[in-house]
Amino acid sequence: MLDALCQWFWSDRLWLPGGLSWADLEDKEGRVYAKPSHLYITVPFAFCFLLIRYAFEKWIATPLAASAGIKQIVPMRAEDNPVLQHYYTTKSRNPAQNDINGLSKKSSLSVRQVERWFRRRRTQDRPGVLKKFREASWRLVFYICAFIGGIFALYDKVWLFDTKEVWTGFPKQSMLDSQYWYYVLEMSFYGCLLFSVAFDVKRKDFKEQIIHHLATLMLLSFSWCVNYIRIGTLVMLVHDASDVLLESAKLFNYAKWEKTCKTIFVVFAIVFMVTRLIIFPFWLIHCTWVYPVLYYPPFFGYYFFNGMLMVLLCLHMFWAFLIVRMVKKFMFGTISHQTEEPCPTKATRKKNHDVLVICNHDYVTMETRSTLNKFMNSHLLLVRIISEQG
């Protein structure tokens, strides 16, 4: 049964153009082709990334945070109370008023004391700014290295400037060492994120993060196994470009360098629009949608890959809408405050600082988090449907 399922999954007609088989991609005449076994090394490499990350955060990120004025603040711990602790861990972190009244009677505490206990307990679990700073700095360093490495791997390739060359000779395109290491390091990094998610800052989109990392690894693995390597490297390069600026903005946000943060965020917004709403659809998706049929008739792998890219484009468009609205809000909103109040109050400064809330890959306002979650759920459902049909 398992062998039959495996044979069906790796069927030539699913992943390769008509008239070709996996036998055509066997190494011969000095040509080396991508194989699934090449990706086995990403698992130990992911654990190596964990060790490197630990050393980086301890010996580099922490002193850097200290120089930026970020300190480890230990919140006041909630007093030991088995009744309240049991409710907190098993039922809810934010009890309703009726539950608070009931807990007050069970724990022999006043209603105000119960409310104070839950506030302190939530604060106790809330990750500190130092932890967020260390995580963002680690991701920033990787994205910088990945982006620079991607440029070095692609700068002399003809398909970087002429995307039609991506399909010249497909699928009999020999694997290059630069492509191999680009894929291995990117996949190892996402594997590292997947392994470390248990002790990273737990966001409200925790489940979506897990599925996002799994989907990313699945797409990279798919493009590798069916020799979509050339277009895969271009997609990775385009996405890494804006991630560098996003993580930079996060660092300055945590350090409370508000003007620098907002400036970088504006640059990030511009780069995001150019790379993901212009280059991605009009160069990369055009490359995967139009050019392949000039060489081969459409096949399942063609539709599957383009379907996943279209889902990604829809997500980019939604993020772009939030980014534009966010840029408009904090730019014009801040100018208005400065005009009306030359000496802003402490509350106003806090409002300006808190206007940027980082959620997963983008800045979103608190009022749009629920909208983002609904969109992400529909996006993940569509990905799951496409995967099941494959």
UniProtKB/TrEMBL annotation:
<keyword id="KW-0238">DNA-binding</keyword>
<comment type="pathway">
    <text>Sphingolipid metabolism.</text>
</comment>
<feature type="transmembrane region" description="Helical">
    <location>
        <begin position="303"/>
        <end position="324"/>
    </location>
</feature>
<feature type="transmembrane region" description="Helical">
    <location>
        <begin position="140"/>
        <end position="160"/>
    </location>
</feature>
<dbReference type="InterPro" id="IPR009057">
    <property type="entry name" value="Homeodomain-like_sf"/>
</dbReference>
<dbReference type="InterPro" id="IPR001356">
    <property type="entry name" value="HD"/>
</dbReference>
<keyword id="KW-0472">Membrane</keyword>
<dbReference type="InterPro" id="IPR006634">
    <property type="entry name" value="TLC-dom"/>
</dbReference>
<keyword id="KW-0539">Nucleus</keyword>
<feature type="DNA-binding region" description="Homeobox">
    <location>
        <begin position="86"/>
        <end position="129"/>
    </location>
</feature>
<keyword id="KW-0443">Lipid metabolism</keyword>
<feature type="transmembrane region" description="Helical">
    <location>
        <begin position="37"/>
        <end position="56"/>
    </location>
</feature>
<protein>
    <submittedName>
        <fullName>Ceramide synthase 2-like</fullName>
    </submittedName>
</protein>
<dbReference type="GO" id="GO:0005789">
    <property type="term" value="C:endoplasmic reticulum membrane"/>
</dbReference>
<feature type="transmembrane region" description="Helical">
    <location>
        <begin position="264"/>
        <end position="291"/>
    </location>
</feature>
<keyword id="KW-0812">Transmembrane</keyword>
<dbReference type="GO" id="GO:0046513">
    <property type="term" value="P:ceramide biosynthetic process"/>
</dbReference>
<dbReference type="InterPro" id="IPR016439">
    <property type="entry name" value="Lag1/Lac1-like"/>
</dbReference>
<keyword id="KW-0256">Endoplasmic reticulum</keyword>
<keyword id="KW-1133">Transmembrane helix</keyword>
<dbReference type="GO" id="GO:0050291">
    <property type="term" value="F:sphingosine N-acyltransferase activity"/>
</dbReference>
<dbReference type="Pfam" id="PF00046">
    <property type="entry name" value="Homeodomain"/>
</dbReference>
<dbReference type="Pfam" id="PF03798">
    <property type="entry name" value="TRAM_LAG1_CLN8"/>
</dbReference>
<feature type="domain" description="TLC">
    <location>
        <begin position="131"/>
        <end position="332"/>
    </location>
</feature>
<feature type="transmembrane region" description="Helical">
    <location>
        <begin position="180"/>
        <end position="199"/>
    </location>
</feature>
<dbReference type="GO" id="GO:0003677">
    <property type="term" value="F:DNA binding"/>
</dbReference>
<dbReference type="GO" id="GO:0005634">
    <property type="term" value="C:nucleus"/>
</dbReference>
<keyword id="KW-0371">Homeobox</keyword>
<feature type="domain" description="Homeobox">
    <location>
        <begin position="84"/>
        <end position="128"/>
    </location>
</feature>
<keyword id="KW-0444">Lipid biosynthesis</keyword>
<comment type="pathway">
    <text>Lipid metabolism; sphingolipid metabolism.</text>
</comment>
<keyword id="KW-0808">Transferase</keyword>
